[in-house]
Amino acid sequence: MAGRPIGGFGMRMFVDLESVYLHRDPVDFRKSIDGLSLLVDQAMGLSVFDAALFVFCNKRRDKLKILYWDSSGFCLWYKRLEKEKFKWPRKDDRDVITLTEEQFHWLLRGFDLRQLQPHKSLKYCSDF
Fold first, then answer.
1. Residues 44 and 96 sit within 8 Å (Cβ to Cβ)
2. Within a domain: residue 77?
3. Which of 64, 67, 73, 79 has its CA 20 to 30 A from that of 24?
4. Which range of residues forms the domain containing residue 17?
């Protein structure tokens, strides 16, 4: 399954991610696995059993919770920033925001995702 955590300081916590979904609006952080699972199902319209990470932020934007299913049970990962805030895409029109693995790691490192835009992909065909 994608999204398996790995340990160690300075290492990426999640590798080989298939899907990362952000719940745009702030979440009451008293919610744990059951409450967040209901949000995934009812508010986000996704299956909590998919090979995906579901990311939630609190109102102050200094905490993240990441929920995922690892084929034998639920995992809940929690991060609290001591001085900074996450650059959470609150002004997005979508209720559920899909991120690439790279964007997810940028978010965890504190980058503003709206300002990090790669070059547009070009698709050409030859007339040969």
1. yes
2. yes
3. 73
4. 4-109
- Domain assignment present for 117: no
Write down the pTM of the prediction.
0.76
pLDDT score for 9: 42
Question: Is 121 within the bounds of a domain?
Answer: no
- 100 phi-psi bin (left φ>0, alpha ψ -120 to 50, beta other): beta
pLDDT at 120: 66
10-69 pLDDT tens trace: 445 555 668 999 998 999 999 999 999 999 999 999 999 998 999 999 999 999 999 999
User: Which tokens hold the place of 102?
Assistant: 């790279």
Strand partners, 76: 67
Query: Which of 15, 24, 18 minimizes the C-alpha distance to 50?
Result: 18
**Could you give the number of structural domains in the chain?**
1
Residue 80 lies in a domain: yes
